[in-house]
Every structure is written in C-alpha cells, then in structure tokens.
Batch of 2 targets.
Target 1
Amino acid sequence: MKCAACGHEARGKFCGKCGARIDASPRNEAFPEQRSAVVETEEQEPVEQEPIEQELVGQELVAQDPAEQEPAQQAEQVVQASDQQLMDQREQAPLSPATAANPPAAAPLPANVHSTVMPATANTSLRGWSLSFAAAAALFGMLGAGVAWFFAVLAKRSEFLQDMLYRLLKSSFGISPEQAAFFSGQLADSWRLQMILLSGGRISGSYMTRPSGQEPVAASFSIHFPLLFHLGVLLALAILLGYGSRKLVRRYSRTEMGRLGWVAAFGLTYAIMVTIAISVLHSKPKLAFGSDIYTLDYHAEPAGTFIYAFLVSSIGMAVGIGGWKLLSSTQWGSWVLSFRGFAAVLAGSYALVFALMVIGWSLVGPDRLYNPNLTTMSSVWQMYNKDPASYAVVPNVLLQEQIYSLGGTWEIGGPRSAQLLQADGPLKISEWEGLSAGGPEGSDEVEGTNGSVSDRASRLSSDLRWNWFSFALLLSYLYALTRIRLRSVAVYAISVIGAILVLAASAAYFSVGIRYGEEAAERIGYDGLQSGLAIGLITVIFLTLSFAAQRIFGRLKEGQAHAE
C-alpha cells in the first residue's frame, strides 16, 4: 500500500520512510507545501536507535534494517525486549525477602511509546453494571418491606382501618357480621396487605364457606383501592435511593443512554422481585364455627403490581439520579424545571385547604358534620380524627375534590358501593349539573317517584355541590398553570396534552373499583374520559391565555432591553 504523504510503498499501518499512518489521510492536506517540507526534514534527520537485528514476522525470522522499520514496530520491540530482560533477571536470581516485599519496578517506556493496557475489561464492566442495579433493587425492596412492616405495626391500633375493612366485607361482599369482624381483625395488621397497598392496591380473592355435610361454596371478588399517600412514600424512597446512587450509576454508565438503561434495568428487577415476593407470601385467614369453616383468600394482581412497581421505581430513580441532557436545554430545560413551581403551588394549596377544612370542622358541631345519608370526609374526620391511619386517605380526597372543581362528575356506580358509603343508592354529582340518579339501580330515595330527584337527595346535593374549597382548588390550579414556562408552540401543545393525560389518568386510577362474583364492576370516583374532556377544556382555555401573555410580555422585555 502506498503512503498518502510521500508515496513510498510500505506495508503495515505506518510508513517506514516518513512515519505517517498508511490507513489515514495526512493531517496537513490543505497545505501540501508545508507537508513536503516536513517530509524532507524527517528524511534529513534519521532517528538514532540501536540496531535491531531481527523481526518476527509470522513464523519466519527476517533480518531488517533499523532505518526501514516502522515506528510502531520499533516501540513494540523495545517493550518486548524490556520485558524479556526483566523475566531473565527474575529467573536467574531468586528473590530475597526484601525484594519479594518490594519488587522492582518495570523499566520506563520511551517518550514516544504509549501503554496499551486497558484499565478494566469489558466483562468486568458488564458484571459491575449488572450487579449494581441488582443490589440497588434489592436495597429498595428491603426499604419498601420495612415501610410496610412499620405501617402494619401502626395498623394494629387503627380503629379506622378495621372499621373500613369490616364495612367492606359486610356491606359490599355480604359476609355475616361475626365473620366480617373476625376477618377485618386478621387483615388490619397484615404486613402482606400493606405491601399490596404499597404496590398499587389491586386485590383479588375469594370467600369460601364449607357448611357441615355440604359442598363448599366460593364467591370471587376484586377491589382496587390505591392510596396516593402510599404512592408518595414509595416514590420518595426511590428518589432518595437514586440521589444516593449517583456516583455508582455514573461509574458504570458514562453515557446518558447507559444511565437510562441502568434505570430501566433497576425498575425491571425491582418489579420482578416485588411481584414474586407478594405472590409467594400467601395467607388464608380461616374461621370455624363448630363444623362450619369460612375461608378468606386474597392476593395481589400480578400484572397490575408489576406495571405499578416498574413505573414508580423507574421514575423515582430517574429523578434522583438527575443530570439529564433535557434539563440542560434552554427551551425544554426551563419547561421541565417550571413544573417544580407548578407542583409546589398545588401541594401548598392542598395543605392550606385541608388545614382550613380541619379548622372549620373543629368549629362546627358533630350533628352538622355527620351526614347519615352519605359517608363524607367531614364525618370520617369527626369520628377518627385521633387515628393516624385516617389521614392516609386525605390525599385521595383532595385529588378527587380537585378533579371535581375542574368539572369532573363524581359517581357511586352500584348498590354495593352505595352500601359501603352508606348512601341511599347509586348517584352522580357534578358542580355544573348537580345531583342525578346513578342508573336503573338507583333507589326511590334518590330518583324520586316520577324519575326526578327527591327532596332528600336535593338537600344532599345542596350540601355537596357548592363548597368554598372547590373554588379554592380551582383558583390554585389556574394559578399553578401560570408557573409553566411556554416558550414555543411545541412546548404549549405538550403542556396541554400532558396536563390532560396526567389528570385524566389520575382520575381513573385513583378511583375505587369493586367487583363481586359475576356482577358488573362498580366504581366510586371518576370516569377518565369524562374527566379528561372537562379538564381539557379548562386547561386549553387558560394555557392559551397564559401562552399569549408570556409571548407578549417576553417581546416587551426584549424591546426594553434593546432600547437600553
């Protein structure tokens, strides 16, 4: 192969005449005059080096002139000669105790010779990468198990949790009072139940009766009861673990795609671990009345648990690690960081509204707070305000009030759900449409004799339809939207779509779902499609005004800056 610099015919990667790389273009292609001068200078000043008599080529020994040898081959031969000399010295003279403790250092390499030893092999890096996220997932699993154990200890003294379980088993599933009381006591302090609630709150099971001398009868059930409080605890643990794992992740994943793969592998490993753990740890509370045996079997839904665990752990770990290129962008980075202000406004408004609600409840007599027709948050607080477990449902209540203030229609979707909340029957209530019967199964107390809403339901509607905290939450949401930075049409469109999807998905996911036997599923909460349309209308209108205002004020500031 000919050298591109001097045209000399040579083999190997370097030219034996000028020393340039054969397989690379010359560095000074734009200045051929300077390059030719450099070549002439190198020809006039040969490299002084001790003659090397032989070169190993394949299996033959070929004599070669030192001037014709390539620089890379000369450097390699110098290293080999130094190593061979050191090995000969070690073989000829045994090491003394002092020499064995402090072995002689290798001969220094020439200035033009660079070491080719890699700091770590690929297999070692891959093994460290794999073990690091597996260890992080195991630690995260142990933290979650510890939190579940702590919640189970607190639940042993919780009257609120036992009463809710008792009402669910008795009213919604039709279990007799004696059996419902026994099973609620067995489930209230269950570590496994707390792990299921931390993993999304999707529970399936069966209730089996074995009367004496008769065949057993079983009825299946499923309930979806997600708690926003448990989600926040698990997400906070993932963020803290991600913050503590920054150095570990960046050690084995030097690129952003590598870190993203590490986060995904961490979430996948944790999801597999928690799904297997909840499925293996199985318990069946049993109650015996003489020769009659009653069994309650429950377990978590594997698919829902896996998806929930993967999403929560991955998102929390990604937030904790940080350092993503998206945040360094001027346009998208400011948009993402502006969501901190959006979330801070909502969180602060929720805390303020709930504090004012508690103050109002404490100043009003119990007879006005407790509604015998429907279990509300005010009646729950009046009965269980000294029980810490009752405050775990407060975030769910505030989220539902937020969606209600934006036009969502809250509903009790069936008779079993109505019995759970001690309502007269299925119903729907909206801030704009008022109260209406929930369907053909609505009772006369709600629907009225001629299909209209009864007087008793009208009074209930007046109590629930208009509330000061609904307006407060609406105003806080609109103000929080102004905290989002909208620098372009693309950012505006993604903000609108993101707000609608997040709130609509939250409305659907954080609604309680009940199914018993072959009956149709019932819902206590919001329909995702209807809530998404209502929320989308308000969000589009207000974000459009906010986008226009930011564009106008931004141009005015630019004009003032140019004028100055």
Note: The first helix runs from residue 32 to 44.
Target 2
Amino acid sequence: MKTHKKVCNPVLSISAILFLRIMNYSDSFIVYYEMLPRYLNGVIKILRIPKTSLENILSLIFAIKIVRIQHGDSVSDYSDIRIGSYAEMVEISEQLIPYIESDKWKETLNQVLQEESATAALVKFYSRFHLHLYYFPLVLSYKQYCMPDDKMIAICPSSWPKVVFDIINNKLGYYNIEFLKLPAIINLFDKIKNIVKILFTSTKYIFTSPIKLKKTKKVEYKLITEYIDPLRFQKSTFDANFCVDDDLIQSKDVLFYLTDRQLKVLNTHGYSKKQLIKQSKDNNYNLVALKDLPFTASFIKNHLKVLFRLLLKTFKYRNSITLDMMPYIWYEYMMHVRLFLNFKVDKSLHIQIPNGRSDWRWNSAIITGLSRQFNTISYGCQTRVLDTRQYEHCFECYDIWFSWGTAWNKLLGSGQKYIHRTIETGILFLDKELISFYKEKENEYFQKEKEKPLKVILFSTDIDLEPTVFGGSFYTKGYTMDFLISCIKLAKNYPKVQFVLKSKDPEHVDIIKKDERFMSIFRQLTTNNFEFLKLERCNYMDILMESDIAISIGFTSPGLEAKILGKPSIYYSQIKNAGQVFKSIPYFVAESQNELNILFNKALKKTRKRLNHFELDVQELDPYQDGEARNRIIKILS
C-alpha cells in the first residue's frame, strides 16, 4: 500500500515543496495548506481560474496532492479545537517573551516605542500574525487528517528559532510532528524582504504626506479616540462617542481620528473622507483623517537616523521573529505618530473591539508607546464578554484599563502584564438608561403578564457560514443549530410555555428555517408555542423585559444582562474550553441537553417574581450592577 507523507504548510510554499522533493522525504506527499501567498493569488487573478484548478496544476507538476485545510462543521469538535488553540497560543507567547526581549533587532523598536510597549507590541503581533496562522492550522490539520501513528511534517517561518519549536513540541507532546528546517538562503531572503517592507512603509508615508517645516503650537485636546462609523455616534455605551456627556466632557474636548485602514472599511460602505469630516463638523465633533496630517521636519531627520541604524543591523544579525513582526508594527507606528506630532492631548482612549463597521484593534501597544513619549495617559476599555483567556484579549498595553470586574481580571491573569493599573467600572453595555427602562417597565409587565403563559426568550449569536483561519470564529452554523435544537426540544416538552427566538440579525431566521434537523422537530410541535422574531441586532430590550426566562447561546451578552437584571437566565454551551467565568456561577451554564432540562426546571420555579436588581453570584463580573459604568469612565477621563 502506497503511503503518503502528510505535510502542514499553512502558507503554501513552492520552495518548501521543492526542498522536500530534493531531500527525498517521500515519494508521495499530501500537503495541507491554509492560505496562498500573494504571487499565487496573483496567478489566479491573471489566469482567472479557481483555487481548485491551481491546486490540480501544482499537484500534477510536483506529483503531490494539495488539500486546503477544512474549517467549520465538517471538522469534529471544531469550536473546541479553535478556542482551545487560542488559549494555548497565550501560553506559548508568554514563554517567548525572554527571547523577544533579548533580540538585537528589538533595539530599533525600543527607540520608537519605548521598551515595554515594544515588547507588548511584538508579543501581540506575533500571536496574531504568525502563531495564529501556523499553530492553529497545525493543530487543526493534525486532528483532522492524522491517525495516532501518523507523522506530520510542519513547515513554519524560517525566522523561528529552536526555542519556538521546543515550546510547541512540549505543548503538543502527544502529537507526532517533525518541524522542517528550511535552507539558510530562505532566512536571508526573508530578512531582506522585511527590511524592504519597513523602508517602503517609511518612504510611502513620508512622500505621500505633507511636511511641516516650521515648529508651530499644537492644538490641545483633553482626549483622543478612534472614529468608527456614523452609526456609532449616538452617545450610548455601544458608540465611539460614549465618552462625551456634554457636561464633564464636551464634544469640543475630544478629537476623533480616522485611520487609513478604517477609512478603507468605510469607503466600501459608501462613505467618503470628505463626507465623514463634514458630517462630524455639522454635529460639532472634531474629526481628522491621519493621512492628511503632516510629518515634522525634525521627526523625518530623526527617523532617517533610525532607518540607517536598522540597515546596519542587516549585515550583523539573522532574521528573527522580531524582524518578521516589525513591518506590521512599523505600518501602525508611521500611521499614528503624526497624530502626536500635530496635537497635544491629555489622554488617549483605545477601544479594542469597537461596535460597528470596523475590524479588531491590535495596536494598543503602539498607541500607548506613542502616548508615553508625548506625555499622554493611555486608557483602554473592556467592551465585550470574554469567553476564555485567548490571545485576542491578552498582551494589551495601557497605563489604565477599565475592567468590568475582578472575574475578568482573574481570567486574563498574566495576559494583563503590560497594563499598569486596572479600574473596575461595571459592565459597560448595561447603561443607566437601560436599567431605568427595566425599572420603569417592571410593574407594568409584572401586572400585565402574570396571568399569561410563561414566555422564554432565546438569544442566538453570529453565524459564521465560511470560517477561515483569520476570518472566522467558533460560532459556526452547526454550533448555533445544536443550541436551537436543544431549545426546540424544550418547546416540544413544554407546550404551554411560549418560546421566542431573537436571532442576532434578522436574516439569520431564514438560515435557521432552512435547516432540516431543526425544522423536523419544529414540525412536531403540537401547539404554536415557538416564535421567530426578525429584529435588528440591538433591538431586544422590550422582549427581554416581558419574558420570564432567558436562554442564550454561550456566551453572548444578553444572557449575562438577563442574569444581572434578576431574571432566571441559562447559558447553553457544549464548548469545554470557554466560559470559565460563568461556569463557577451555580445553575447558570448547561453543557448538555440533560443539564439544560434540569436548569430549565429550576428556572420555572423562580418565575413570576419581581426582579432582583442585584445578584450576589455575579458580583465579581460587575461589582456595581447599576448601569453607571459609562459615567464612572467619563469622570476618570475628565
């Protein structure tokens, strides 16, 4: 029987495949890949062929089989593998910090960002742009395609030192993995490529931006924070301008800035830079696009010295993971430094995961490094429920971090090592107006609903139909349907209880109704006790208030919100590697259909009671539970 060597090559490398052939590793390969390099994507565009055609052509040329790594519901335990890998990446990155701190290439970053911020930026970007791209596909492909006795050859960046492979091997000791050491020429090529990228970034920004020759007085602001989109200017806790209350902090005190990347996002949604700036001005807000800001002559002079010293290192040191990350960091640095060159600000507020049309922010250490250089206090703010201790939430760098409560700090642990001080504010999205709304409507709903059938509100979340290594999550369609099937079984067993589904987005209802597993049980209902609501994402306050019990997919925000407001609330999650902060709370998390049945019976006994607006068992999640988090943050920022 012909055997195949199994190779994990996350970024498909022709040179690596050739090397495998030359070294006679095997007569036959199966190469599992995640992404194509830019030049192969260019071939696809020029020839106008699908990826599968390119895979077939390469397979014929090199006598190999090329298979793209599968994601989503086709992979057993996909959600657990994904989120478990994210948590493992934090541990791997932490062990690499001493190596990163001693890397000679880091001296250049220390000059532009200061030492601690430079380290934090390197660890964060390494976790995101290298470890995530190589470690997660390696774990996924091994579990998906390898039998217990199989060996997998792993092709990783040439810049990775032996310490990285040792750490990963210790982490995956039960896997049979051989890391392929590529020729030194590839390491040299990668080093030159990184230097060229850095030089290109500096040249591009300097030659496409205005230059301020004379020193002028900087315009002063109390606070700077990044612009998101026009829909996120409603002064709610979900919005970019939540820090403006027109009392302690007025709109004139804040400068909103628009990054090059965010402008591209908004351009795809039909917004122009000119339109956004005019709209902000009409509403008395200050908005500036970073690309319009000038560099100063003195900065350019000093920056050229930094680049010269960087070039000298090219002849002294090998490529490293530090140098591999520097092009990413350099791009963020050159984009943001102009903000501090042109304005004098007291405080900067960085939102890691903003609501609205935007991407995730990975640049907290760059913002903080620049803030410290220009005597600005750097603040960060928790805006999301944290599922587990994963790299997206770790290695942020701030002077002050607004945390919801002690439970979240315990979860992140040493992942907060680059945060100097933490202030607990309570849960941000539970704003005062929402609490007031519930209290105002409580008596009305209590009297009106107590004689009617019990109502259960079901909250699902995002549905990731086509997850990839960078563009996906563990909320697959199958994960959502498993949750909803468990809920529809409750509806079948309790025909006198009314169940109402509030999907995350209205279009999800049509996706759910096309699922035959779900609909086969739905058609068995003997009473009309299951309702679908097509409401916009944040429109759920009324239905939550008039409901007696909340059941939410693990772990979306409304489930926690219902719990804090005193309603019987259940999280349903079959993911073992997530939700640690909730699993310590009694009768809150169900991990199976049987546990859901038990918790639902307990919840039925607690209904028809007035709401308790302070829950002791969630005190560590929110020590206040009063909806005043926004006001606390504003007082500190003012």
Note: The CA atoms of residues 218 and 402 lie 28 Å apart.
